[in-house]
Amino acid sequence: MRKLLAILLVVALAVVGILIGRQSSRVDDNGHFLPPDTATLKTAKPVVRIYMENSGSMNGYVTTNSQFKNALGHLITKADGFYSGTRLDFINQGIFHTPMCDDLDNFVLNLNPASMQVGNTSSTDINKIFKMILDHTSRDTISVLVSDCMYDVDNVGNLLSAAATSTTGTFMKAIRRARDDKHEFATVIMQCMSEFSGNYYEGNQAIACNGQRPYYVIVMGNLEQVTDFCHHMELEDTATGLPGLTHKYMISSEPTWQLDNMTARIFASDFTNAVRIQANHDGLNVRKVTIDQEQSNFNFALGLGVSHLFTDLSYLLDKDNYEVEPSQYKITDVNDEAKFTECDFFRHPICVQMVVLGQNYAPQLTLRLKNKVPAWVSECSYNKRLGTLPESHQSYAIYEMVEGIYSAFYNSMDTNSRDLFQLQVKFEGYE
């Protein structure tokens, strides 16, 4: 009996040891060991993997002490300082790790066209790059691509719609894998500007360039982790953030935020003909509106607090990005210049000015901020072979690339989740 008890005790201790061992280190879907503190998503810090695309078209960013080097240095140093593990690799036709990649503190100091000659740098396929990166992106991994995102795709030529479809398929698979692993997927696309001294490549044609050129920082991973990453990395155009950042756009398989009624107010100002608007306790729904009956239309405004939306201010101020129902309500302007005491507690108040045509009132209106490809993407894109240097802010077919990513997320969303927010206002009485 004592021997049996002893055997059972040994077995029990062995089982406990195995369980502890499994908790101390884990292996992701690609066979990569993850640090112990990535085991619990709610409290763990993810592993950050930074990929620097090193085709010949990237050489011009590293020939001088450019904004590109400055921003890349900030990104690497801050990620390594805050997160539990940061890995840096070159990427082109494959993923390459060199001794220089291990010295994160001095990586940028040693970065030049010669030190970037790793792997096949003659050409790259951005869709293959996305696939390689996403295949190495797990629940506890944030992946960051730094690239000029030249959309020259092997065996596609100028069929950009086919290239965009390929991008969509690659990201839809990543979204599906994430949901199978019980989390949501997100991507942040940022355009940055930098000094550039070297050859700009249009296909196989080299065009000398000495001036400003755009490049892109694309963050991919678990929605919760990506949101946290954006916060800790201070992704703004500042000396301590990401110098040279001009535009940013975040999209996820679930809404990144919801506008609560407590972050909105309805109010009257100099542009309204309402004698008085008496709001309910939430500051949004209206108990009573006293109207100047001599006016043909009824004008009023909504104040929105939007500090949690990771996007350009230009997106929030573009009235074409909003939609209102029913049809008698019209948006006349969106601005950030309103002065109103009702919204003093807003960090970044946006004023949406509206009109009811012909005082044809409806008891309720619904305001939506649509989720669409930002206007800056189209403005920064061209898709014809020019044979000359494009405008300094433009990249070849960047619109098609972003649209491909956008379509993957849009097609993965429920119909009710495709707006960035929906806001309802009820009018209970007029006089």
Oligomer: single chain
Total count of helical runs of at least 4 residues: 9
Helix fraction bin: 25-40%
Overall mean confidence score, pLDDT = 79
Largest sheet: 7 strands, mixed
Structural class: alpha+beta
Strand order of the largest sheet: 5-4-3-6-8-7-9
| Shape summary | elongated
**Over all CA atoms, what is the radius of gyration?**
26 Å
User: Helices and strands, in N-to-C order?
Assistant: HEEEHEEHHEHEEHEEEEEHEEEEHEEHE
Per DSSP, what share of the residues sits in E-state strands of 2 or more residues? 25-35%
Task: Walk me through this protein's architecture.
- The model is unreliable at 2-43 (pLDDT under 50).
- The chain has helices at residues 2-24, 67-82, 99-102, 126-135, 160-180, 223-232, 313-316, 375-379, 398-412, and strands at 26-27, 33-34, 47-53, 85-91, 95-96, 141-147, 185-202, 205-222, 245-252, 264-267, 274-279, 286-291, 298-305, 322-325, 329-335, 349-356, 364-370, 381-382, 395-396, 419-426.
- The chain is 25% helix and 31% strand.
- It is elongated.
- It has 431 residues and is of the alpha+beta class.
- The termini are far apart.
- Strands 5-4-3-6-8-7-9 form a 7-stranded mixed β-sheet, with helices on both faces. Strands 10-13-16-15 form a 4-stranded antiparallel β-sheet, with no helix packed on it.
- Helix 4 (126-135) packs parallel to helix 5.
- The chain has 9 helices and 20 strands.
